[in-house]
Amino acid sequence: MNVDAIADLARLDLTDGERQRFAEQLEKILDYIDVLQSIDVEGVEPSAHAFEVVNVWRRDMVEASFSQECALRNAPERESGQIRVPKVVDDA
Amino acid sequence: MRRNVKAVKSVCQKLSTMPKENEMIYYQTLKDLSVALQAGSLTPSRIMGAFIARTKATEAALHSFICYDEGSALEQAEAADLRWKSGKNLSPYDGVPIGIKDIISVQGQPMTCGSRMLENYISPYDATVITKLRAAGMIIWGRLNMDEFAMGSSTETSAFGPTQNPWNLEYVPGGSSGGSAAAVAAGQTCIALGTDTGGSIRQPAAFCGIVGLKPTYGRVSRYGVTAFASSLDQVGPIGRSVEDVAAVLSIIGGRDSHDSTSVDVPVENYVHASTCEKPWRVGVLSEFMEGGGLDGDVSAAIGRVVKFYESQGCPIQPISLPNVNAGLAAYYIIATAEAFSNLARFDGIRYGHRSKSATDVASVYSKSRAEGFGEEVKRRIILGAFVLSGGFHDAYYTRAQKVRSLIRADYMRAFDDVDIILSPTAPTAAFHETEKCEDPLAMYLNDVYTVTVNMAGLPGISIPCGFDRNHMPIGVQLIGKPFGEGDLLAAARFYEKSHDFHGQHPLLADLAQTL
């Protein structure tokens, strides 16, 4: 497993120690997981849930929601009633 | 050194000076406290006071809680006092405390999920289960410790330190709902809520000698509960008796418009249903009784449970689930894949930890997550990302989902012939702290008997059924049909009625001598 590439996909910086440990541990785990390859799954439908899940509809009605203050309360940085983030788009 | 001798000695000192009548409260069942409230011999404030005193005396040694708000608990108790006084109690359980795992939102209270990522997070709203408990008047009590984001089987991955097992402080309480189980076992709360994705209610209940119920998938709303693996997660009660968990299930169960996976099946009076007695056909899972990792003491204890049902006229039938041995592998693929997806929300933008050293948006994500998540969570995110990644998706994720279909079909076929399936809850009793910390696979193997129940969406319960050679509790798992909680609870209560394992409590005061 290319741990670096996977960590990049997961937007997760790893330390050198973590990278090394994970590579070893995950190899072991993947070896164990290989038991799956011995099961005959020919013609079996995959299931995302234990029970069939159906779409649920409700009336499109406005319900009471958070105040702005409440929604912003856990924001790491805020400014003028908004969540502050680093610049996303470069100056043209 | 994690075990603090000084702390334990001070606990013992405090315990010896505590009023004896408190003992009459903190080890009572929900049922007994309810009877006392109705008779007027106890008030909610008196009850809450006893649990707070017990918590203060034992918490330094156990660390079951991440935090608790004494003022809020007493305020809720005083409101309940007034309701009982004026005959306007909201339910028979009005004013009894219920401890809450730190993964369930309670408005205005912190919710860390055992993670630095959410160290300063305050829940803006109540989870549906909390709304329902409040409607029954129950006191929302404390934030119980857990493995980080419910990923672990020992409560050792909590960013805020491990919880100790009240039966012996050198042993783990199980996990991930280890704080919930330890608090109930030690008399810090009467009952508690946990969550169970692969055994996180049943295994700690077994390790702490109490009762833990994982309801059928969809029986209880997950709204306001931080998602780990959405197709597997369920909320359920951990308590001192089968009747107690039945009572709480009746309160928290039901369809919720905020959780589209909650199912519109009527909520029974599970306390009433649990009193039903009949000759259940009991299936014994041969694959689970023959596995190499099963401890001899556990195997013998489970054998005695089987004998008991047999002696009471229940037909015993060995059953086989041919694909169950691949269950753990399929589980760890599906659970980590879903976790990888669910934990994407922790990006340092809207809430949670944001790295101070991040300079642009990409590094806000990757550094905040690096600093906020602990090692087990990172390991599972990597595994989840891998099994979903291009080129591996079909071989791992899709294949695991197919195995899941097979396992569910295996169970449903078995239920043609039996009413209840019986197995150990875990291969061993509680293990020594740090024993499995360095070996993630060994830790995962602890869940081998519980995970397939989540994969099939079935209800499962662990009840105490003995002790091993170290006097650590052993649990037996009973598995029921989908939405068959009534029958499942009845079969469990039938066993409990003839045994006294659930009435035994850890002698915390004796622990000083063992150090």
Description of the molecule:
The complex is a heterodimer of chains A (92) and B (515). Chain A has 92 residues and is mainly alpha-helical. Chain A has three helices and two strands; from the N terminus they run H-H-H-E-E. In chain A, strand 1 and strand 2 form a beta hairpin. The radius of gyration of chain A is 23 Å and the shape is flat. With 515 residues, chain B is of the alpha/beta class. Chain B has a domain at 16-276 and 493-503: Amidase signature (AS) enzymes, CATH 3.90.1300.10. Helices cover 42% and strands 11% of the residues of chain B. Chain B is built from 20 helices and eleven strands. Chain B has an eleven-stranded mixed beta sheet with strand order 1-3-2-4-6-5-10-11-9-7-8, sandwiched between helices. Chain B is globular and about 65 Å long. The model of chain B is unreliable at 510-515 (pLDDT under 50). Classes of the chains: A mainly alpha (92), B alpha/beta (515). The interface between A and B is large, with 52 and 72 residues.
Brief digest:
The complex is a heterodimer of chains A (92) and B (515). With 92 residues, chain A is mainly alpha-helical.
Descriptive tags:
heterodimer, A: 92 residues, mainly alpha, two-stranded antiparallel ribbon, 2 strands, 4% strand, flat, B: 515 residues, alpha/beta, Amidase signature (AS) enzymes, 20 helices, 42% helix, disordered C terminus
Helix content of chain A: 25-40%
Low-confidence stretches of chain B: 510-515
| Unreliable runs of chain A | none
Number of strands of chain B: 11
Quickly count the helices of chain A. 3
Helix-strand category of chain B: alpha/beta
**What string, H for helix and E for strand, traces the elements of chain A in order?**
HHHEE
Please count the beta strands of chain A (DSSP E, at least 2 residues each). Answer: 2
